[in-house]
Specification:
By secondary structure, this protein is of the alpha+beta class. The two termini are 24 Å apart. Helix 9 crosses helix 10. It has 14 helices and 19 strands. It has a five-stranded mixed sheet with strand order 7-6-5-8-12. Strands 15-14-13-18-19 form a five-stranded mixed sheet, with helices on both faces. A hairpin with a 2-residue loop joins strand 2 and strand 3.
Length: 427
């Protein structure tokens, strides 16, 4: 079982708050923590100016967030104009608390630990021996425990090292605030379940209940495209954007849309399901009986099959079809590999144009292997999008750890929306 954070202590108060006070307090704490994330190290007076909260309110919230291990005072005070008492800025405390992340893809599960800035501290990929849900989730829980042990061991100071050179020498190992789970397919955030994932053969899998029972931690569940929109808003290129569209192109092809800092989920979290949208120029037969459906045309399974048929060497191995081998073949100058990646990038560009015409977002983020790893693929996508809209399109901000970030960001989004409820009280 993972080591859980201490349970929060009751909020001290001298009288019963008004009905609206808890929501107001939650919102204000969220605004303060987001300001520290975006601007830290930052003076409390600056937070008050940025957020419109009173200096007293900011000081109070900073004290609460400090007790919970979320922020701390910066080591070096700053002077305002060189006169008066120095300001002691606050910054995120990225050393004490972490979140766990689980992402279940078709060929493997990724488990990871992330700090409060969304940075991956440790990551492990667990190939599926079986996709039976209880076994996959049990392995994920065990994998998280192993990562936490590994991280704690790596932070244990050398006994020969003077404390003065290791400021946190007596600080205990990191504590896990919670676990975020992400996957493709139809994922119901409120129910904490994967409703349907045809490629895994999952149906009505109670992920939250299973992982919570295995880890003893709060577990939060969402679809991976929505998780990555939240990651882009908090830690990536989309920070500050009024609206963001994310297109995820892997074995599963899906999307997510956020506006005014809220991701659209729809009834039972079905928003973003685009697998069967018709794609202009598509010819790939789909299981639904039609041809040219977006997922059938763009999926990595289709890409790898076409590469195998084109004679790209090394595209199949003992661990099955791996699209990264196609990227490697293209890097080695194999013309067929380059052609297939460019064709796919152009088709992804058509999908972007289709979705952007409907949603008209300020920013579009694309997660697709060729676009992430090759400049010519990104250029092909942007050329297909064309016009002024091409300037709004960019690849994922997390090219080396996108699946790890997807899982962890589900939990981090909950934390930044309600830091007083999602974080432990420190005595």
């Amino acid at each position: 079982m993972l080591r859980t954070a201490a349970p929060p202590s009751p909020y001290p108060h001298s009288s019963l708050p008004r009905a609206a006070d808890p929501d107001r307090r939650r919102t204000s704490a969220s605004v303060v923590l987001r300001s520290v994330l975006e601007h830290g190290p930052v003076a409390r007076s600056t937070i008050a100016r940025l957020t419109g909260l009173s200096p007293a309110s900011v000081t109070d919230h900073c004290a609460r967030l400090t007790r919970r291990g979320l922020i701390r005072e910066s080591a070096v005070p700053r002077r305002s104009g060189g006169v008066g008492r120095p300001h002691v800025p606050v910054d995120l405390d990225a050393t004490r608390l972490v979140v766990g992340g689980v992402h279940v893809a078709v060929p493997y599960t990724t488990v990871a630990l992330l700090d409060l800035r969304g940075r991956v501290l440790a990551e492990r990929r667990l190939p599926h021996g079986t996709t039976e849900p209880s076994r996959v989730l049990a392995r994920a829980a065990d994998g998280l425990t192993a990562l936490l042990d590994q991280l704690s061991d790596s932070r244990t100071p050398d006994a020969r090292t003077p404390d003065a050179r290791v400021p946190d020498a007596r600080v205990p190992g990191p504590r896990v605030l919670g676990v975020g789970f992400a996957a493709g397919g139809w994922v119901d955030r409120e129910a904490g379940a994967v409703v349907e994932h045809p490629l895994l053969g999952w149906r009505e899998v109670a992920v939250r209940d299973v992982l919570a029972a295995r880890t003893g931690l709060p577990v939060h569940v969402d679809g991976h495209a929505r998780a990555l929109v939240n990651a882009e808003r908090l830690f990536g290129r989309a920070r500050g954007s009024g609206s963001v569209l994310h297109l995820f192109v892997g074995n599963v092809v899906d999307s997510a849309f956020a506006t005014h800092d809220e991701v659209h989920h729809g009834p039972r979290s079905q928003a973003g399901s685009i697998a069967h949208l018709p794609l202009a120029g598509g010819t790939e037969p789909c299981a639904c009986g039609r041809s040219g459906c977006l997922q059938a045309e763009l999926s990595e399974r289709t890409l790898c099959r076409r590469a195998y048929e084109a004679g790209v060497p090394g595209i199949r191995g003992a661990d099955g079809a791996d699209p990264m081998r196609l990227v490697e073949a293209a890097a080695a100058g194999r013309p067929a590999a380059v052609r297939l990646l460019l064709e796919r990038a152009r088709m992804v560009g058509r999908a972007v144009s289709l979705l952007a015409d409907v949603l008209n977002p300020e920013r579009v983020v694309v997660t697709e292997r060729g676009v992430v790893h090759r400049e010519d693929c990104l250029a092909a996508l942007l050329a297909e999008v064309g016009g002024q809209r091409a300037a709004t399109v960019a690849p994922t901000s997390f090219p080396e750890s996108v699946l790890a970030v997807a899982g962890g960001s589900v939990a981090l989004d909950v934390l930044y929306r309600d830091p007083l409820g999602a974080s432990p009280e420190r005595n």
